[in-house]
Design brief:
50% of the residues lie in helices and 12% in strands. With 292 residues, the protein is of the alpha/beta class. InterPro entries: ICL/PEPM, Pyrv/PenolPyrv_kinase-like_dom, Pyrv_kinase-like_dom_sf.
Amino acid sequence: MSVTQQSKRQALKARFARNEIVTAPGIFDMISAKIADSMGFECLYMTGFGTVASYLGLPDAGLATYTDMVNRVAAFCGGTNTPMICDADTGYGGLLNVAHTVRGYEQAGAAGIQLEDQEFPKKCGHTPGRRVIPVDDMVRKIKVAAESRSDRDFQIVARTDARTSLGLDEALRRGEAYAKAGADVLFIESPESIEELETIGRTFNVPLLVNIVEGGRTPQLAPRELEKLGFSLAIYPASGFLAVAKALKEMYGQILAHRSTVAAVDAMYPFSEMCELMGFPEVWAFDRAHAD
């Protein structure tokens, strides 16, 4: 474990101990990761939906494998300096798989891992048809996850999808069980009202994550409002790739309709800045230093 990885995890854990909410954008490819990393966020969130979509062109429905995802974790974390929580779905199998996944994500540089209690194959949060495994099975997964990490600062984020199918009371019961099992952060997915957010906030005394999905089930409140309700981390997993998808469609529409981008130049990220973001100045300096 490098000092850099350890310092990222220590910084994130210490940040959650404060009474100020952290906002984390969803990253899904290396361009989004590098842009977010350059902006001063205290945490980034590797979104499963966006990563699977951008990497495989598939829905986030349990189709991506551990190998697919740990590959992305290594690339994202290796190319950024901001602590990152990375989606690991259900752990990609049984208890032995969970142990392997935790070790792999930790070695790949993640500051935390998100594990959920859905049946396999899982489905994306805020979508219909999600079913959960028995609470005792998830408790065992969390215990194994906590035991398998080599760094105690590596954050175990336990997510329950029980609210949508079984109601808030069952989701709260599961949250309590997961915290006792060793989860560092609780993620009650898809609360459907401000009252439910209030109930979640006053029920637990551990860091709480809230998932803000534009067009999803959970009310979109300002970070300070969420902070007052008791939440420590607000993630915005879909915002980036939804914005990118719209921008791409509009730009490609310009090319299709006008066979030109002259009228759309102002809507583009400057090419010179993209070169800098991707590290071309270092390449050019290397070439100058080793020129014949």
